[in-house]
# Entry
Amino acid sequence: MTSRLKVAAFGLVLMAVLALPAAAATPDIRTVTVVGSGEAEPEGLPGEWTLVVSVEHERARTALRNAAAAVGRTRSTLRAAGITDFQTGEMSLDAAIARDERVSLRGFEASTKIELAVSDVQRAATVLDRVRAAGVTQIFGPVASEEASKELARRALADGYNDAVEKAKRLAAKAGVTLGPALTIDERRTDVPLGPIIYGPGQYPRPEAPSRDVYATVTVTFAIS
# Structure
């Protein structure tokens, strides 16, 4: 009796499956996959700069005093240029080891750093020239801030997606098919590189700095019909 019930139940299930309308079956979806390239330029976004003041003297107190004076001139120069949002680090004092092996100590080096952000390139160039004359010995940057990095990534990804859509439209038109919605999206982006050293001891500005643009590739799969 139990076996008959099992056979009957299986038969009912089989009949129900066979009775499903054709629309219930999942049709094969045709797709096209394209890769878009995106780029974002940092123009208009603030770049972070690090100014280093370093003074060496054979006497420790003199090194500290001269470094403090250079920092004061630098801060005044920044304020005169309209830049009031900057951070000054604590002054450090280190022994300067002599290059001559016969002498153990060359003197003392007092140093600190000042960090600031400037968005306009021309303004940054003017300010950097002035602070260098005020006593800054090294300048590092520009490095994109965290907020600027996120904004650049968003712009690059959006540009990459738009490029993928345009490529897919051209391919669909060429093949005589209709482009449907995006089914999958995969993105890859290049992080913002660290900025170069613009000024160093006894050096001039580098004529060409590495690009700070952000690049992204976006792979999108579209349905077509």
